[in-house]
Amino acid sequence: MKILKIVKLSIAVWLVLSLIDYLYTLFQIDKTSIVTTMMGLEIKSHITAEAIHTQFSPTPQMIFTFGIVLIFVGGLYALISKRRETI
Q: So where does this one cross the membrane (predicted)?
Protein backbone atom coordinates (compact mmCIF):
# COMPACT_ATOMS: atom_id res chain seq x y z
CA MET A 1 0.00 0.00 0.00
CA LYS A 2 2.87 2.38 0.75
CA ILE A 3 4.41 1.84 -2.68
CA LEU A 4 1.12 2.58 -4.43
CA LYS A 5 0.75 5.77 -2.40
CA ILE A 6 4.30 6.86 -3.27
CA VAL A 7 3.75 6.15 -6.99
CA LYS A 8 0.45 8.07 -7.04
CA LEU A 9 2.03 11.04 -5.29
CA SER A 10 5.04 10.90 -7.64
CA ILE A 11 2.78 10.91 -10.69
CA ALA A 12 0.88 13.93 -9.36
CA VAL A 13 4.09 15.84 -8.58
CA TRP A 14 5.60 14.93 -11.96
CA LEU A 15 2.46 16.06 -13.82
CA VAL A 16 2.37 19.40 -12.00
CA LEU A 17 6.08 20.01 -12.68
CA SER A 18 5.64 18.99 -16.33
CA LEU A 19 2.67 21.32 -16.76
CA ILE A 20 4.55 24.27 -15.27
CA ASP A 21 7.59 23.51 -17.43
CA TYR A 22 5.42 23.07 -20.55
CA LEU A 23 3.57 26.35 -20.09
CA TYR A 24 6.75 28.29 -19.35
CA THR A 25 8.54 26.88 -22.40
CA LEU A 26 5.55 27.21 -24.73
CA PHE A 27 5.21 30.92 -24.09
CA GLN A 28 8.95 31.46 -24.68
CA ILE A 29 8.73 30.21 -28.28
CA ASP A 30 8.64 33.13 -30.73
CA LYS A 31 9.84 31.57 -34.00
CA THR A 32 9.79 28.27 -35.89
CA SER A 33 11.86 25.89 -33.81
CA ILE A 34 12.19 22.57 -32.01
CA VAL A 35 12.52 22.89 -28.25
CA THR A 36 12.87 20.21 -25.57
CA THR A 37 11.61 21.16 -22.12
CA MET A 38 13.51 20.33 -18.93
CA MET A 39 11.00 17.57 -18.16
CA GLY A 40 11.52 15.95 -21.59
CA LEU A 41 8.64 17.13 -23.78
CA GLU A 42 9.68 18.03 -27.33
CA ILE A 43 7.77 20.95 -28.84
CA LYS A 44 7.97 21.46 -32.61
CA SER A 45 6.60 24.85 -33.59
CA HIS A 46 6.02 26.12 -37.13
CA ILE A 47 4.95 29.76 -37.26
CA THR A 48 3.66 31.42 -40.43
CA ALA A 49 1.79 34.68 -41.04
CA GLU A 50 -1.50 32.79 -41.12
CA ALA A 51 -1.16 30.18 -38.38
CA ILE A 52 0.88 28.60 -35.64
CA HIS A 53 1.29 24.81 -35.81
CA THR A 54 2.56 23.06 -32.71
CA GLN A 55 3.39 19.37 -32.32
CA PHE A 56 4.28 17.65 -29.05
CA SER A 57 6.41 14.51 -28.71
CA PRO A 58 7.63 12.53 -25.70
CA THR A 59 11.36 11.85 -25.32
CA PRO A 60 13.26 9.26 -23.25
CA GLN A 61 14.18 12.12 -20.92
CA MET A 62 10.58 12.01 -19.63
CA ILE A 63 11.17 8.55 -18.15
CA PHE A 64 14.42 9.73 -16.58
CA THR A 65 12.78 12.78 -14.98
CA PHE A 66 9.91 10.65 -13.69
CA GLY A 67 12.45 8.29 -12.11
CA ILE A 68 14.15 11.22 -10.39
CA VAL A 69 10.81 12.49 -9.07
CA LEU A 70 9.89 8.96 -7.91
CA ILE A 71 13.18 8.59 -6.01
CA PHE A 72 12.85 12.07 -4.50
CA VAL A 73 9.24 11.58 -3.37
CA GLY A 74 10.02 8.07 -2.07
CA GLY A 75 12.99 9.36 -0.08
CA LEU A 76 10.99 12.26 1.31
CA TYR A 77 8.15 9.91 2.25
CA ALA A 78 10.57 7.55 4.02
CA LEU A 79 12.19 10.44 5.88
CA ILE A 80 8.83 11.77 7.07
CA SER A 81 7.65 8.28 8.06
CA LYS A 82 10.77 7.66 10.17
CA ARG A 83 10.42 11.03 11.83
CA ARG A 84 6.79 10.28 12.77
CA GLU A 85 7.83 6.95 14.29
CA THR A 86 10.40 8.59 16.56
CA ILE A 87 7.95 11.20 17.87
A: 12-29, 62-80
